[in-house]
Amino acid sequence: MTVRIGVIGIAGAEVSDSLRAVGDIEPVVAVDMEAASSLAAGELDYLIGVCESGGGAALAIPIAILGSGRCTNVSKLGRPATSEEIDDLLETGTVAFGIARDHLGQLVPQLASAMRRRQAALPPSA
Question: Which CATH number fits domain 3-121: 3.40.1400.10, 3.40.30.10, 3.30.70.360, 3.30.565.10?
């Protein structure tokens, strides 16, 4: 099953390349309003937003559309989330992730792998 991940913010090409490298992932680069709306409509599975801090510009529109309970910054206080923390966030329904540009190389592959595992574990949709 291919996982569709919206990509918003800065470094869209770099994020897309990292996502494709994981395999079975279709990155969809879009503006934040379009991507968050597509995620809310079920046209995307997840969203990754990138800005300098991973919080403000990367998540403002997704939070407005999806609610703060479904969005989080995984680069808090300059510390990238661990694989275990990412798995826990996915398990509790987080679908939009903000990343600081400094953590792209580490977090994008971790997020992509975790998202792919999570999608594979879900029952097929009717």
Answer: 3.40.1400.10
